[in-house]
Amino acid sequence: MSRPGAPPAGTSGGEPPDRTPVARFEAGVSALVRWSESNHIRLAVARRSGCDLASSELRLLEHFDLVAPMRVSDVAECLHVDVSTVSIQLRRLRQERLVEGLPDGSDGRVTLVSITAEGRVVMARVRAARRELLGEVFAQLPAAELEQAARVLLLVQQHMLGDARRTGG
Predict the structure, then answer these.
(1) For the domain with range 21-166, which CATH number is right: 3.30.43.10, 1.10.10.10, 3.40.228.10, 3.30.470.20?
(2) 76-100 confidence digits (pLDDT tens)
(3) Using one digit for the tens of pLDDT, what is the confidence trace for 22-53?
(4) Is the pLDDT at 2 greater than 80, yes or no?
(5) How far, in Å, CA of 146 to CA of 66, rounded?
(6) CB burial of residue 107 (10 Å; 0-12, 13-18, 19+)
(7) Of 57, 76, 72, 69, nearest to 123 (Cα)?
């Protein structure tokens, strides 16, 4: 019997039991997400960037930095969350003047949410802090390998942005 938290029998703990390229990619993405969401990394980003937004608020601000102004309902659909969840997360972003509501030119009853200039400044500081931390982690990796990893991961972003465009973003 294995101890709690130990890797499953027959695995090293570092590699997935399924060694197909997709399984290995999933394991790597999962590790990157765990690293970026870990408390010490989130605190380091907050300290270096001066931004203390919650992870969910920061993800939402980053979403608006990448897409055209969107309806709240379209944001919720794109992110696969409830409209009430998006509305709660937007509250602080609006209070901090990081996003704003704009009238929809084609339908006066609709408000579109858009990132503000200040929101873009905050995102630039957060991205710079992340790049510093990633630079420290991957300092020994050859630039060509890092570029290859970036190309593959950006395919995921393109897929996500395609979803945003299909839902109105």
Answers:
(1) 1.10.10.10
(2) 998 889 999 999 999 999 999 999 9
(3) 999 999 999 999 999 999 999 999 999 999 99
(4) no
(5) 22
(6) exposed
(7) 57
Structural contact between residues 75 and 84, judged by C-beta atoms closer than 8 angstroms: no
Q: How many residues does the chain have?
A: 169
Indicate the residue type of 143: A
One-letter amino acid identity for 88? I
Burial 144-165 (b: 16+ CB within 10 A, else e): eeeeeeeeeeeeeeeeebeebe
Please give the radius of gyration of the chain, using alpha carbons only, rounded to the nearest integer. 19
Crossing angle of the two packed helices 83-95 and 55-66, in degrees rounded to 10: 90
Contacts of residue 164, defined as CB under 8 A and 6 or more positions apart, other chains included, come to 63, 66, 67, 70, 78
